[in-house]
Amino acid sequence: MRTPLLVASLLFALAGPAAADELTDLRRAFRDASGAELVFTRGELPRGDWFEQMPELAADERVAAARILVAEARHYPAGWLGAIGLARVGVFAGLASSDGDGFRPWDDDLGGYRYFGLWNGASAIAAAYYTDQQLPLTFHHEVFHHVDGAHGFRDDDAAFAAAVDGTAPYAGLALAPRDLAALAARAGAPLDDAVSDYTAKSAGEDQAETARWLQSHLATGLWQAAARPELEGSQRILHVLAEYAAAGGPSAATLVDVALGRAPRVAAPSFAQRADAAIATLRARVAPAGAWTVWGQEGPDGGNPTLRADVARFATTARDLGRERAPQAQRAAAAAKLLALLDGYRGFIAGRWTLSAGTAAAFDRARAEVTAALAPAAAPAAPAAPAAPANPYLAKVDAAITDPTWRAAIRGVQPAVVKLGGGSGVNLAPTGLILTAAHVVDEVGRALTVRFPDGREFAGVTTHLDADLDLALVALTGARGLPVARLAAAAPATGDDVVVIGQPGTRTPDGEATGYQPWHVSVGAIRGFRGGARTGEQHLGRTKHDAWTYWGHSGSPLFDRRGRIVALHNSWDSTTAMRHAVTWEAIVAFLDASDALAR
User: Fold this and answer.
1) N or C: which end of the chain has fewer CB within 10 A?
2) Is the whole model's pTM more than 0.70, yes or no?
3) pLDDT tens profile 26-64
4) What residues pair up with 539 in beta bridges, in sequence order?
């Protein structure tokens, strides 16, 4: 077995500056070649489901692994891996899990079923380094999984099958006669059909195995794809080459250069490629697997030091890029991408929690530094919210609530309550994301007009719906700088005061005039909670309350004394006259499942 983790770390520390300097140079060379970061500890990978056992490499093994992967990364266009969203490549002494998949041997030394590698489905891969011959194969296998999965090519498995069985084959490669002859002189035995038994697991594994075989037998693979396209193995190779090309990856001409030992016809990574790779690294930190994530916890001052350090990384990245020479248009484009990611992160956090003064200042400072470093003259400024028209319905808050603190909290969130369809809702994001009851919007894809109390109207479409929970989300178009309301940090308790704001409806379901006015404010309290399963009686929410509502209040938020959402009104019980609302817990689960606030 390789050196244990703690011993490996100690040996690395004792290896001396020469090894450390060489590894630093190799990691930089790998980043320049690939656009991705080469890492050697689990903590440097994005959070996710990796392996139970991931022992670290010793110092000399890290250097050896880095040498191998720098050479293999040069099979691809400079900066390409980072440009397509692969931000981290981790290498370890071994990978093992207590769960096998039928293809893995048990390894007593590792204490689990031994694996070679894994793509996390988003922005990183992990590879074991068992031998010098195996590591390149694993690297190219997992890289192809990223190409195949991250860019939607899993949908072309039918085309892959049709090529292999001869129903719709690819044409052979068209290569220059001199190149074809040179490849033939270096070619070995062709790949007749599938690479290994492991390809039977899935079409994706078949293609990834083909990719790793091709990258380790370039002369043979390219020659047979040109001279023997009728072979099933050649069709597999041609499909892999087509996916590479569609994702902006290595062309056949580039791979011919690599196979023949010629200098690749690729330029050094451009400023835009380096910027995209750096931004992909930031995205992998703050939104691993595409979902916004806040690391760390609040400190005594109410701020989160880990979060603030992550925000500061945006400024550091901008300063590093700012030292490079590049046309102003490219620098401004990089600034715009950085600021969009930074603003999206801030919007996610502000939509869920209260930003402490220190954290808000950290975001402001990072934004200013990104602008100063990359686009001092023309960077896009933070979009200023348009001046909101007068809100004539705020007076209803003052009329219903006498306590000045509570009144101020509710005045702060009333502008985020909306009217849509025949019901109510509440806005959760500055760009427009309306939480409402499912029975208000009926189905995903339904188009609606959403109106705010200041009179602004926006087109919206239902994007998520859970009929069992009676919850839905409506995304707005062309909106920015909108008022938002946030969820409470915890569920309410029986007896807690609540305020409901919504649209009673100007007419009864039978069409008779009611005389009720929109953005009605009513005060009540939580009266208990129903039990029962998740499904069944979904339109009779489990939170009981006694604030006055009418039929158009469906989708109205229930606010606590801090102006936080604690439930969503959706029904009333005609036998008891008790009002009911969807629970806080259900709202949290629905939002997490929809992942909509991460977009």
Assistant:
1) N
2) no
3) 999 999 889 899 999 998 888 878 999 999 999 999 999
4) none
